[in-house]
Design brief:
Length: 185
């Protein structure tokens, strides 16, 4: 354990770094104890740099087993739920998956200007967001809370219209339909 993370022995003589930024704040104590007792932890290899002889790691999701290959669940235009990692003057960093942190710029938060995001969205808060872009091999993820809210509202509206179309009259009927059924034109 160091100030910047935990070195994990992957194979005899082969270590990877589980950087502090890849450890959710809620699990810092657990990782410190694991390092002190040399306990096994399940990690994901997020990148390998043979030139620098570095292996970057992230904590594996709960239920993952050693040797299992996992695919990213983050896709463009998907709506996902993430956990606030940290807040900067320009936006909120959200952990959206193991080894994957995205940025919600202030303009995409859907909050009034000058909102104190430290107060309204402290670390650990879950936020539903839409994935706007994925760049740099998944290292730069742009997110939008505003877009996710809009997508959910659109889906609810479509569901309402579909349900109303199935009904015969009633509240789901448009004014034009009501007039046609009453014989007026």
């Amino acid at each position: 354990m160091t100030d910047f993370g935990v070195f994990v022995e992957l194979l005899p003589g082969v270590d990877g770094l589980l950087h502090l930024t890849e450890i959710p704040r809620s699990r810092h104590g657990e990782m410190k104890q694991a390092a002190e007792s040399s306990a096994a932890v399940v990690v994901l290899v997020t990148s390998i740099d043979p030139g620098k002889r570095r292996i970057s790691l992230a904590l594996a999701p709960e239920g993952a087993t050693a040797g299992e290959q996992l695919e990213s669940t983050i896709a463009l235009s998907a709506v996902v739920t993430g956990t606030v990692e940290r807040i900067e003057p320009f936006g909120v960093f959200l952990r959206v998956g193991p080894g994957q942190v995205g940025l919600i710029p202030n303009a995409e938060m859907g909050t009034p200007p000058n909102t104190d995001h430290h107060k309204d969205f402290p670390p650990g808060t879950e936020i539903k967001v839409a994935v706007l872009s994925i760049e740099g091999g998944g290292k730069r993820i742009s997110l939008s809370r505003t877009q996710a809210q809009r997508m959910e509202e659109d889906a609810e509206t479509k569901d309402y219209i579909r349900d109303a179309a199935r009904k015969d009259g009633g509240f789901g009927m448009t004014l034009g339909e009501a007039l046609r059924r009453s014989g007026r034109r």
